[in-house]
Write a structure and sequence with these properties.
By secondary structure, the chain is an alpha/beta fold. Helices cover 32% and strands 20% of the residues. The structure holds guanosine-5'-diphosphate, 6-O-phosphoryl inosine monophosphate and magnesium ion.
Length: 446
Protein backbone atom coordinates (compact mmCIF):
# COMPACT_ATOMS: atom_id res chain seq x y z
CA UNK A 1 0.00 0.00 0.00
CA UNK A 2 1.30 3.40 -0.91
CA UNK A 3 1.87 5.74 2.02
CA UNK A 4 2.77 9.40 2.10
CA UNK A 5 6.23 9.10 3.66
CA UNK A 6 7.89 9.23 0.27
CA UNK A 7 8.18 12.56 -1.44
CA UNK A 8 6.23 11.99 -4.60
CA UNK A 9 5.41 15.19 -6.45
CA UNK A 10 2.82 16.36 -8.92
CA UNK A 11 3.40 19.19 -11.40
CA UNK A 12 0.20 20.95 -12.50
CA UNK A 13 -0.72 24.01 -14.51
CA UNK A 14 -2.62 26.65 -12.52
CA UNK A 15 -4.28 28.38 -15.46
CA UNK A 16 -5.61 27.32 -18.89
CA UNK A 17 -2.61 25.26 -19.97
CA UNK A 18 0.77 26.07 -21.53
CA UNK A 19 2.17 27.41 -18.28
CA UNK A 20 5.55 25.74 -18.84
CA UNK A 21 4.92 22.33 -17.22
CA UNK A 22 7.19 20.56 -19.73
CA UNK A 23 10.20 22.66 -18.78
CA UNK A 24 9.61 22.12 -15.05
CA UNK A 25 9.05 18.36 -15.35
CA UNK A 26 12.25 18.05 -17.38
CA UNK A 27 14.09 20.05 -14.75
CA UNK A 28 12.78 18.07 -11.77
CA UNK A 29 13.29 14.70 -13.46
CA UNK A 30 16.78 14.45 -12.10
CA UNK A 31 15.39 13.84 -8.59
CA UNK A 32 12.79 11.24 -9.61
CA UNK A 33 12.79 7.70 -10.96
CA UNK A 34 9.46 7.64 -12.80
CA UNK A 35 7.47 10.30 -14.66
CA UNK A 36 3.75 9.63 -15.02
CA UNK A 37 1.06 11.22 -17.20
CA UNK A 38 -2.36 10.67 -15.62
CA UNK A 39 -4.85 12.77 -17.65
CA UNK A 40 -5.62 14.22 -21.05
CA UNK A 41 -4.11 13.06 -24.28
CA UNK A 42 -2.55 14.54 -27.40
CA UNK A 43 -4.30 17.85 -26.67
CA UNK A 44 -1.27 18.56 -24.48
CA UNK A 45 1.87 20.11 -25.94
CA UNK A 46 4.74 20.24 -23.45
CA UNK A 47 7.91 21.99 -24.59
CA UNK A 48 11.32 20.93 -23.37
CA UNK A 49 14.43 22.79 -24.53
CA UNK A 50 17.71 20.94 -24.34
CA UNK A 51 20.58 23.06 -25.59
CA UNK A 52 19.64 24.18 -29.11
CA UNK A 53 17.03 21.48 -29.44
CA UNK A 54 13.35 22.04 -28.76
CA UNK A 55 11.04 19.08 -28.19
CA UNK A 56 7.23 19.30 -28.11
CA UNK A 57 5.75 16.31 -26.30
CA UNK A 58 2.07 15.50 -26.61
CA UNK A 59 1.37 12.04 -25.22
CA UNK A 60 4.79 11.02 -24.00
CA UNK A 61 5.73 12.16 -20.48
CA UNK A 62 8.38 14.88 -20.55
CA UNK A 63 10.70 12.47 -18.72
CA UNK A 64 11.09 10.45 -21.91
CA UNK A 65 14.10 12.56 -22.90
CA UNK A 66 15.88 10.96 -19.94
CA UNK A 67 16.23 7.30 -20.99
CA UNK A 68 17.18 6.17 -17.48
CA UNK A 69 13.80 7.29 -16.12
CA UNK A 70 10.69 5.16 -16.51
CA UNK A 71 7.98 7.07 -18.39
CA UNK A 72 4.43 5.95 -17.70
CA UNK A 73 1.18 6.74 -19.52
CA UNK A 74 -1.46 5.98 -16.91
CA UNK A 75 -5.04 4.66 -17.05
CA UNK A 76 -6.56 8.16 -17.04
CA UNK A 77 -4.93 9.18 -20.32
CA UNK A 78 -6.68 8.80 -23.68
CA UNK A 79 -4.22 7.47 -26.25
CA UNK A 80 -4.32 8.08 -29.99
CA UNK A 81 -2.12 5.15 -31.13
CA UNK A 82 -0.96 6.85 -34.33
CA UNK A 83 -0.19 10.13 -32.61
CA UNK A 84 1.84 8.22 -30.03
CA UNK A 85 3.75 6.22 -32.65
CA UNK A 86 4.46 9.38 -34.67
CA UNK A 87 5.84 10.96 -31.54
CA UNK A 88 8.04 7.95 -30.78
CA UNK A 89 9.28 7.86 -34.41
CA UNK A 90 9.87 11.62 -34.43
CA UNK A 91 12.03 11.37 -31.33
CA UNK A 92 13.86 8.38 -32.83
CA UNK A 93 14.77 10.45 -35.90
CA UNK A 94 16.31 12.99 -33.54
CA UNK A 95 18.35 10.37 -31.72
CA UNK A 96 16.07 9.90 -28.70
CA UNK A 97 15.25 6.20 -28.43
CA UNK A 98 12.03 5.22 -26.73
CA UNK A 99 12.12 1.56 -25.71
CA UNK A 100 12.01 -0.19 -22.37
CA UNK A 101 11.73 3.18 -20.63
CA UNK A 102 8.09 3.59 -21.73
CA UNK A 103 5.11 1.82 -20.17
CA UNK A 104 1.52 2.30 -21.33
CA UNK A 105 -1.39 1.36 -19.10
CA UNK A 106 -3.54 -1.50 -20.35
CA UNK A 107 -6.48 0.36 -18.77
CA UNK A 108 -6.06 3.57 -20.80
CA UNK A 109 -8.66 4.35 -23.45
CA UNK A 110 -8.01 4.55 -27.19
CA UNK A 111 -8.77 7.65 -29.27
CA UNK A 112 -10.23 6.39 -32.56
CA UNK A 113 -10.41 8.22 -35.92
CA UNK A 114 -14.16 8.74 -35.46
CA UNK A 115 -13.50 10.59 -32.19
CA UNK A 116 -11.48 13.19 -34.07
CA UNK A 117 -14.18 13.47 -36.74
CA UNK A 118 -16.84 13.90 -34.05
CA UNK A 119 -14.73 16.52 -32.27
CA UNK A 120 -14.53 18.57 -35.50
CA UNK A 121 -18.19 18.08 -36.45
CA UNK A 122 -19.38 19.08 -33.03
CA UNK A 123 -17.30 22.27 -33.14
CA UNK A 124 -18.30 23.14 -36.71
CA UNK A 125 -21.98 22.65 -35.98
CA UNK A 126 -22.14 24.39 -32.61
CA UNK A 127 -23.59 27.86 -32.37
CA UNK A 128 -20.80 30.45 -32.39
CA UNK A 129 -21.13 31.11 -28.64
CA UNK A 130 -21.12 27.39 -27.78
CA UNK A 131 -17.88 26.53 -29.60
CA UNK A 132 -15.21 25.42 -27.17
CA UNK A 133 -12.29 25.86 -29.54
CA UNK A 134 -10.97 22.34 -28.88
CA UNK A 135 -7.64 21.04 -30.14
CA UNK A 136 -9.61 18.65 -32.44
CA UNK A 137 -7.63 15.69 -31.09
CA UNK A 138 -10.78 13.68 -30.31
CA UNK A 139 -10.36 14.09 -26.55
CA UNK A 140 -13.96 14.90 -25.55
CA UNK A 141 -15.63 12.20 -27.69
CA UNK A 142 -13.17 9.56 -26.43
CA UNK A 143 -13.83 10.41 -22.76
CA UNK A 144 -17.58 10.43 -23.55
CA UNK A 145 -17.28 6.87 -24.91
CA UNK A 146 -15.30 5.90 -21.82
CA UNK A 147 -18.26 6.95 -19.66
CA UNK A 148 -20.73 5.32 -22.05
CA UNK A 149 -18.70 2.08 -21.76
CA UNK A 150 -20.41 0.02 -24.50
CA UNK A 151 -18.64 1.90 -27.30
CA UNK A 152 -15.25 2.27 -25.61
CA UNK A 153 -11.99 0.69 -26.72
CA UNK A 154 -9.15 0.27 -24.25
CA UNK A 155 -5.48 -0.56 -24.70
CA UNK A 156 -6.08 -4.03 -23.19
CA UNK A 157 -8.59 -4.68 -25.99
CA UNK A 158 -5.76 -4.31 -28.50
CA UNK A 159 -3.97 -7.24 -26.87
CA UNK A 160 -6.83 -9.50 -27.96
CA UNK A 161 -7.47 -8.05 -31.39
CA UNK A 162 -9.44 -11.08 -32.67
CA UNK A 163 -12.06 -10.51 -29.96
CA UNK A 164 -12.05 -6.76 -30.48
CA UNK A 165 -12.45 -6.78 -34.26
CA UNK A 166 -16.14 -7.80 -34.61
CA UNK A 167 -17.11 -5.48 -31.75
CA UNK A 168 -15.11 -2.66 -33.31
CA UNK A 169 -16.88 -3.15 -36.64
CA UNK A 170 -20.23 -2.84 -34.85
CA UNK A 171 -19.05 0.30 -33.07
CA UNK A 172 -17.85 1.88 -36.33
CA UNK A 173 -21.19 1.11 -38.01
CA UNK A 174 -23.10 2.64 -35.10
CA UNK A 175 -20.82 5.70 -35.11
CA UNK A 176 -21.29 6.21 -38.85
CA UNK A 177 -25.09 5.99 -38.55
CA UNK A 178 -25.19 8.10 -35.41
CA UNK A 179 -22.95 10.89 -36.68
CA UNK A 180 -24.72 10.94 -40.07
CA UNK A 181 -28.10 11.28 -38.35
CA UNK A 182 -27.01 13.93 -35.84
CA UNK A 183 -25.16 16.11 -38.35
CA UNK A 184 -27.50 15.53 -41.32
CA UNK A 185 -24.75 14.50 -43.71
CA UNK A 186 -23.35 11.18 -44.87
CA UNK A 187 -20.28 10.47 -42.77
CA UNK A 188 -17.85 8.05 -44.35
CA UNK A 189 -16.01 5.68 -42.03
CA UNK A 190 -14.06 2.92 -43.78
CA UNK A 191 -14.23 -0.01 -41.34
CA UNK A 192 -11.60 -2.10 -43.15
CA UNK A 193 -9.12 0.76 -43.16
CA UNK A 194 -9.75 1.68 -39.50
CA UNK A 195 -9.43 -1.93 -38.37
CA UNK A 196 -6.28 -2.55 -40.43
CA UNK A 197 -4.51 0.57 -39.27
CA UNK A 198 -5.42 -0.05 -35.61
CA UNK A 199 -4.14 -3.63 -35.90
CA UNK A 200 -0.85 -2.37 -37.31
CA UNK A 201 -0.52 0.26 -34.56
CA UNK A 202 -1.45 -2.31 -31.89
CA UNK A 203 1.36 -4.62 -32.96
CA UNK A 204 3.88 -1.85 -32.53
CA UNK A 205 2.46 -0.65 -29.21
CA UNK A 206 2.06 -4.01 -27.50
CA UNK A 207 5.66 -4.22 -26.22
CA UNK A 208 5.02 -1.03 -24.21
CA UNK A 209 1.74 -2.20 -22.64
CA UNK A 210 1.82 -3.02 -18.94
CA UNK A 211 -0.20 -3.02 -15.75
CA UNK A 212 1.16 0.40 -14.81
CA UNK A 213 -0.94 0.49 -11.65
CA UNK A 214 0.97 -2.49 -10.24
CA UNK A 215 4.19 -1.00 -11.58
CA UNK A 216 3.66 2.23 -9.60
CA UNK A 217 2.81 0.32 -6.42
CA UNK A 218 5.98 -1.77 -6.80
CA UNK A 219 8.07 1.32 -7.53
CA UNK A 220 6.77 2.99 -4.39
CA UNK A 221 7.44 -0.08 -2.27
CA UNK A 222 10.97 -0.22 -3.65
CA UNK A 223 11.53 3.35 -2.42
CA UNK A 224 11.52 4.97 -5.84
CA UNK A 225 10.31 8.56 -6.32
CA UNK A 226 7.48 9.37 -8.67
CA UNK A 227 6.84 12.62 -10.53
CA UNK A 228 3.29 13.04 -11.83
CA UNK A 229 2.94 15.31 -14.86
CA UNK A 230 -0.41 17.05 -15.16
CA UNK A 231 -1.63 17.99 -18.61
CA UNK A 232 -3.80 20.99 -19.58
CA UNK A 233 -4.41 23.34 -16.63
CA UNK A 234 -6.52 23.64 -13.48
CA UNK A 235 -8.96 26.12 -15.03
CA UNK A 236 -9.62 23.56 -17.80
CA UNK A 237 -10.63 20.88 -15.27
CA UNK A 238 -13.85 19.10 -16.25
CA UNK A 239 -15.43 19.59 -12.80
CA UNK A 240 -13.84 22.76 -11.51
CA UNK A 241 -12.74 24.74 -14.56
CA UNK A 242 -14.51 27.43 -16.56
CA UNK A 243 -17.18 24.99 -17.72
CA UNK A 244 -18.18 24.32 -20.48
CA UNK A 245 -15.00 25.87 -21.89
CA UNK A 246 -12.84 23.15 -20.40
CA UNK A 247 -11.24 19.89 -21.42
CA UNK A 248 -12.77 16.49 -20.59
CA UNK A 249 -10.52 15.23 -17.82
CA UNK A 250 -9.48 16.06 -14.28
CA UNK A 251 -6.44 18.28 -14.58
CA UNK A 252 -5.44 18.91 -10.96
CA UNK A 253 -3.32 16.86 -8.58
CA UNK A 254 -6.61 15.53 -7.18
CA UNK A 255 -6.91 13.44 -10.35
CA UNK A 256 -3.60 11.66 -9.84
CA UNK A 257 -5.39 9.02 -7.76
CA UNK A 258 -7.97 7.94 -10.36
CA UNK A 259 -5.73 8.72 -13.32
CA UNK A 260 -2.69 6.80 -12.17
CA UNK A 261 -4.23 4.18 -9.86
CA UNK A 262 -2.68 5.25 -6.57
CA UNK A 263 -4.23 6.35 -3.24
CA UNK A 264 -5.18 10.01 -2.87
CA UNK A 265 -2.52 10.58 -0.22
CA UNK A 266 0.30 9.57 -2.57
CA UNK A 267 1.25 13.08 -3.63
CA UNK A 268 3.19 14.97 -0.95
CA UNK A 269 4.16 18.03 -2.98
CA UNK A 270 2.05 19.81 -5.54
CA UNK A 271 4.09 22.19 -7.64
CA UNK A 272 1.81 24.64 -9.42
CA UNK A 273 3.20 26.13 -12.62
CA UNK A 274 2.03 29.55 -13.77
CA UNK A 275 3.27 32.32 -15.98
CA UNK A 276 3.97 35.77 -14.57
CA UNK A 277 0.92 36.83 -16.63
CA UNK A 278 -2.08 34.91 -17.99
CA UNK A 279 -2.78 33.22 -21.33
CA UNK A 280 -5.56 31.16 -22.80
CA UNK A 281 -6.06 29.35 -26.14
CA UNK A 282 -9.52 28.54 -27.35
CA UNK A 283 -12.78 30.08 -26.23
CA UNK A 284 -14.11 30.90 -22.81
CA UNK A 285 -14.13 33.58 -20.13
CA UNK A 286 -10.83 35.22 -19.24
CA UNK A 287 -11.33 37.95 -16.64
CA UNK A 288 -7.88 39.54 -16.80
CA UNK A 289 -7.60 39.43 -20.60
CA UNK A 290 -6.01 42.43 -22.32
CA UNK A 291 -7.59 42.57 -25.74
CA UNK A 292 -5.42 45.55 -26.64
CA UNK A 293 -1.86 46.68 -27.42
CA UNK A 294 -0.57 45.46 -24.06
CA UNK A 295 -1.95 41.97 -24.69
CA UNK A 296 -0.41 42.02 -28.18
CA UNK A 297 2.92 43.05 -26.71
CA UNK A 298 2.86 40.21 -24.17
CA UNK A 299 2.05 37.77 -27.01
CA UNK A 300 4.96 39.07 -29.05
CA UNK A 301 7.50 39.17 -26.21
CA UNK A 302 6.43 35.78 -24.87
CA UNK A 303 6.02 34.14 -28.30
CA UNK A 304 2.55 33.09 -27.24
CA UNK A 305 1.42 30.67 -29.95
CA UNK A 306 -0.04 27.21 -29.17
CA UNK A 307 2.38 24.27 -28.99
CA UNK A 308 -0.21 21.82 -30.32
CA UNK A 309 -2.28 23.91 -32.73
CA UNK A 310 -0.12 26.99 -33.40
CA UNK A 311 -3.07 29.27 -32.50
CA UNK A 312 -2.22 32.72 -31.07
CA UNK A 313 -2.78 32.69 -27.32
CA UNK A 314 -4.99 35.32 -25.70
CA UNK A 315 -2.95 37.28 -23.14
CA UNK A 316 -3.70 39.25 -19.97
CA UNK A 317 -2.33 40.27 -16.57
CA UNK A 318 -1.69 37.73 -13.83
CA UNK A 319 -4.98 36.68 -12.27
CA UNK A 320 -4.50 36.20 -8.53
CA UNK A 321 -8.19 35.38 -7.98
CA UNK A 322 -8.18 32.48 -10.45
CA UNK A 323 -4.69 31.34 -9.39
CA UNK A 324 -5.64 31.43 -5.70
CA UNK A 325 -8.66 29.28 -6.56
CA UNK A 326 -6.40 26.80 -8.41
CA UNK A 327 -4.02 26.68 -5.44
CA UNK A 328 -6.81 25.94 -2.96
CA UNK A 329 -8.49 23.44 -5.27
CA UNK A 330 -5.44 21.31 -5.94
CA UNK A 331 -3.62 21.57 -2.60
CA UNK A 332 -0.74 23.38 -4.27
CA UNK A 333 2.27 23.66 -1.96
CA UNK A 334 4.61 25.83 -4.04
CA UNK A 335 4.75 27.72 -7.29
CA UNK A 336 7.04 27.85 -10.30
CA UNK A 337 6.66 31.31 -11.80
CA UNK A 338 7.45 31.22 -15.52
CA UNK A 339 8.22 33.82 -18.18
CA UNK A 340 9.38 36.52 -15.78
CA UNK A 341 11.63 37.67 -18.67
CA UNK A 342 8.59 38.32 -20.89
CA UNK A 343 7.37 41.16 -18.66
CA UNK A 344 10.67 43.09 -18.86
CA UNK A 345 10.26 46.54 -20.37
CA UNK A 346 6.67 47.20 -19.28
CA UNK A 347 6.47 50.48 -17.40
CA UNK A 348 3.69 49.09 -15.20
CA UNK A 349 2.62 45.50 -14.62
CA UNK A 350 -0.80 44.47 -13.37
CA UNK A 351 -2.15 41.83 -11.04
CA UNK A 352 -5.86 41.08 -10.96
CA UNK A 353 -6.54 41.05 -7.21
CA UNK A 354 -10.32 40.99 -7.24
CA UNK A 355 -13.44 40.35 -9.28
CA UNK A 356 -16.56 42.51 -9.19
CA UNK A 357 -19.80 40.98 -10.37
CA UNK A 358 -22.83 43.23 -10.72
CA UNK A 359 -21.19 45.74 -8.40
CA UNK A 360 -20.34 43.20 -5.71
CA UNK A 361 -16.94 41.73 -4.89
CA UNK A 362 -16.57 37.99 -5.44
CA UNK A 363 -13.65 36.04 -4.01
CA UNK A 364 -13.62 33.06 -6.38
CA UNK A 365 -14.60 32.45 -10.00
CA UNK A 366 -18.41 32.03 -10.23
CA UNK A 367 -19.72 28.74 -11.64
CA UNK A 368 -21.58 30.10 -14.64
CA UNK A 369 -19.58 31.05 -17.72
CA UNK A 370 -21.98 33.94 -18.40
CA UNK A 371 -21.26 35.39 -14.97
CA UNK A 372 -17.56 34.86 -15.35
CA UNK A 373 -17.73 36.61 -18.70
CA UNK A 374 -19.36 39.61 -16.97
CA UNK A 375 -16.86 39.81 -14.13
CA UNK A 376 -14.93 43.08 -13.91
CA UNK A 377 -11.29 42.61 -12.95
CA UNK A 378 -9.81 44.79 -10.21
CA UNK A 379 -6.22 45.44 -11.22
CA UNK A 380 -3.45 46.51 -8.92
CA UNK A 381 -0.71 48.18 -10.96
CA UNK A 382 2.90 47.89 -9.86
CA UNK A 383 6.06 49.48 -11.23
CA UNK A 384 7.70 47.37 -13.90
CA UNK A 385 11.38 46.70 -14.59
CA UNK A 386 13.45 47.49 -17.64
CA UNK A 387 16.38 45.13 -16.96
CA UNK A 388 16.24 41.84 -18.86
CA UNK A 389 16.42 39.07 -16.23
CA UNK A 390 16.99 36.24 -18.70
CA UNK A 391 20.61 35.67 -17.60
CA UNK A 392 20.06 36.30 -13.90
CA UNK A 393 21.13 33.35 -11.76
CA UNK A 394 19.88 34.18 -8.27
CA UNK A 395 16.83 35.70 -6.66
CA UNK A 396 18.91 38.47 -5.15
CA UNK A 397 20.13 39.58 -8.56
CA UNK A 398 16.60 40.06 -9.95
CA UNK A 399 15.44 43.66 -10.45
CA UNK A 400 13.92 45.05 -7.23
CA UNK A 401 10.59 45.73 -8.89
CA UNK A 402 10.45 42.13 -10.16
CA UNK A 403 11.04 40.95 -6.59
CA UNK A 404 8.24 43.21 -5.34
CA UNK A 405 5.96 41.89 -8.06
CA UNK A 406 6.67 38.29 -7.02
CA UNK A 407 6.13 39.08 -3.34
CA UNK A 408 2.74 40.56 -4.18
CA UNK A 409 1.81 37.41 -6.07
CA UNK A 410 2.88 35.22 -3.15
CA UNK A 411 0.79 37.24 -0.71
CA UNK A 412 -2.21 37.21 -3.02
CA UNK A 413 -2.22 33.46 -3.72
CA UNK A 414 -0.88 32.26 -0.36
CA UNK A 415 1.97 29.92 -1.35
CA UNK A 416 5.67 30.55 -1.96
CA UNK A 417 7.32 30.89 -5.33
CA UNK A 418 10.14 28.35 -5.21
CA UNK A 419 11.21 28.32 -8.85
CA UNK A 420 11.53 31.34 -11.13
CA UNK A 421 11.92 30.82 -14.85
CA UNK A 422 13.55 33.56 -16.91
CA UNK A 423 13.69 31.86 -20.30
CA UNK A 424 12.84 28.60 -22.08
CA UNK A 425 16.24 26.96 -21.51
CA UNK A 426 16.99 24.65 -18.61
CA UNK A 427 19.77 26.95 -17.51
CA UNK A 428 17.42 29.94 -17.34
CA UNK A 429 15.96 28.84 -14.04
CA UNK A 430 16.37 30.16 -10.53
CA UNK A 431 15.69 27.56 -7.90
CA UNK A 432 14.91 29.49 -4.78
CA UNK A 433 13.96 26.77 -2.39
CA UNK A 434 12.11 23.64 -3.13
CA UNK A 435 11.39 20.35 -1.47
CA UNK A 436 10.63 18.88 -4.86
CA UNK A 437 14.29 18.77 -5.86
CA UNK A 438 16.95 17.09 -3.81
CA UNK A 439 19.30 20.05 -3.97
CA UNK A 440 20.47 19.95 -7.55
CA UNK A 441 23.33 22.43 -7.75
CA UNK A 442 22.84 25.04 -10.42
CA UNK A 443 25.96 23.84 -12.22
CA UNK A 444 24.21 20.56 -13.03
CA UNK A 445 21.03 22.27 -14.25
CA UNK A 446 22.32 22.95 -17.73
P1 LIG B 1 3.18 23.38 -21.13
O1 LIG B 1 2.07 22.88 -21.98
O2 LIG B 1 2.71 23.82 -19.79
O3 LIG B 1 4.34 22.42 -21.02
O4 LIG B 1 3.75 24.71 -21.84
P2 LIG B 1 4.06 24.89 -23.40
O5 LIG B 1 5.29 24.15 -23.73
O6 LIG B 1 2.86 24.60 -24.22
O7 LIG B 1 4.26 26.45 -23.48
C1 LIG B 1 5.25 27.12 -22.77
C2 LIG B 1 6.14 27.88 -23.75
O8 LIG B 1 6.90 28.82 -23.05
C3 LIG B 1 7.15 26.99 -24.47
O9 LIG B 1 7.39 27.52 -25.76
C4 LIG B 1 8.39 27.12 -23.61
O10 LIG B 1 9.60 26.86 -24.32
C5 LIG B 1 8.31 28.55 -23.20
N1 LIG B 1 8.88 28.88 -21.89
C6 LIG B 1 8.84 28.17 -20.74
N2 LIG B 1 9.35 28.90 -19.72
C7 LIG B 1 9.71 30.09 -20.23
C8 LIG B 1 10.26 31.29 -19.67
O11 LIG B 1 10.51 31.40 -18.48
N3 LIG B 1 10.47 32.33 -20.52
C9 LIG B 1 10.20 32.26 -21.85
N4 LIG B 1 10.44 33.32 -22.59
N5 LIG B 1 9.67 31.15 -22.41
C10 LIG B 1 9.43 30.09 -21.61
P1 LIG C 1 -1.08 21.66 -22.19
O1 LIG C 1 -0.91 20.35 -21.46
C1 LIG C 1 -3.72 24.80 -23.69
C2 LIG C 1 -7.92 23.72 -24.31
C3 LIG C 1 -8.29 23.88 -25.77
C4 LIG C 1 -9.76 24.19 -25.64
C5 LIG C 1 -10.20 23.30 -24.46
C6 LIG C 1 -10.81 21.97 -24.87
O2 LIG C 1 -0.17 21.83 -23.33
O3 LIG C 1 -1.08 22.78 -21.23
P2 LIG C 1 -9.82 19.72 -25.88
O4 LIG C 1 -9.11 19.46 -27.17
O5 LIG C 1 -9.05 19.31 -24.67
O6 LIG C 1 -11.22 19.17 -25.87
O7 LIG C 1 -10.00 21.33 -25.83
O8 LIG C 1 -9.03 23.06 -23.72
N1 LIG C 1 -6.72 22.89 -24.05
C7 LIG C 1 -5.50 23.38 -23.86
N2 LIG C 1 -5.02 24.65 -23.94
N3 LIG C 1 -2.87 23.79 -23.35
C8 LIG C 1 -3.32 22.52 -23.25
O9 LIG C 1 -2.55 21.52 -22.83
C9 LIG C 1 -4.69 22.27 -23.54
N4 LIG C 1 -5.44 21.17 -23.53
C10 LIG C 1 -6.68 21.56 -23.84
O10 LIG C 1 -7.58 24.94 -26.37
O11 LIG C 1 -9.93 25.52 -25.24
MG1 LIG D 1 1.24 23.27 -23.87
Amino acid sequence: MIGSEQEHTCVVGLAWGDEGKGKIVDLLCESYDLVVRYNGGANAGHTVCVGDERFALHLLPSGVLHPEKVSVIGPGVVIDPHALLDEIDGLGERGVRVGDNLRISDRAHVVMPYHKIEDQLSEQNAHQGDRIGTTARGIGPCYADKMRRSSAVRICDLVCFETLEPRLRDIIRAKRDGLSAVYGQQITLDSDAIVASLREAAERLLPFVADTTALLHEAHNAGRRILFEGANGTLLDIDHGTYPFVTSSGTTANSVAPGAGVPARTVANVLGVTKAYATRVGKGPFASELDNDIGDRIRKQGNEYGTTTGRPRRCGWFDAVATGYSVRLGGVTEIALMHLDTLAGFERVGICVGYRLDGREVTAPPAHADQLERVEPVFEMLDGWSEDPSRVESLDALPDNAKRYMERIETAVGVPITIVSVGPERSQTIIADTRTMTAVPRATVT
